[in-house]
Amino acid sequence: xxxxxxxxxxxxxxxxxxxxxxxxxxxxxxxxxxxxxxxxxxxxxxxxxxxxxxxxxxxxxxxxxxxxxxxxxxxxxxxxxxxxxxxxxxxxxxxxxxxxxxxxxxxxxxxxxxxxxxxxxxxxxxxxxxxxxxxxxxxxxxxxxxxxxxxxxxxxxxxxxxxxxxxxxxxxxxxxxxxxxxxxxxxxxxxxxxxxxxxxxxxxxxxxxxxxxxxxxxxxxxxxxxxxxxxxxxxxxxxx
Length: 240
Prior knowledge:
By secondary structure, this protein is an alpha+beta fold. It has two domains: 2-97, Severin, CATH 3.40.20; 162-239, no CATH class. 26% of the residues lie in helices and 23% in strands. The chain has helices at 18-21, 48-65, 79-98, 146-153, 162-174, and strands spanning 2-6, 12-14, 27-32, 37-42, 68-73, 181-188, 191-194, 220-227, 230-239. The protein has a five-stranded mixed beta sheet with strand order 2-1-3-4-5. Strands 7-6-9-8 form a four-stranded antiparallel beta sheet, covered by helices on one side. A hairpin with a 4-residue loop joins strand 3 (27-32) and strand 4.
């Protein structure tokens, strides 16, 4: 068994201390090869970044190992999970203490060799350098007119502004709640935001920075928000 703490950056850090691991601010992943299970444990005060990274990493591990995923909240911690944590901590701590360092062989110093004089190379005649031809000046590009500038900024390819995001967030707040679920994230354009109700300071926007790669968000139920026949936003809901 192996116990990992999921950092907010998405990194998985091994842990051998049960008390440190079960802190409310942590998100844990325990891999049990004997049971062929992957346990996830979400602390009550853990960050949304760690939760999102946990969903990505457990989906990747399930594809690699083929094990069943068991998701647990801190309030639903059971004896089976605690026993798996105890075994993982004991195995990791024992392997760390029994691991012997490999002896390092001393590097033998090379015998100093007598310096030998090398014969001087015969001088070769050098041809006089010819003067370089002056480079032609690049043609100046035509200046952009006021009409061109107005046409460029009136294009529909302009990115979503902060005002547009606030407008979309207000429209999403009017929609009905998805049963007994929690909205964790909102995707607008090419940016992932933490849902406003999960922020410590309401009214602020928090963008989620994640490394490149793909993952299966099977723990989330998406809800699309359309306007004028286009997908404006995607909400990610998680069962409570």
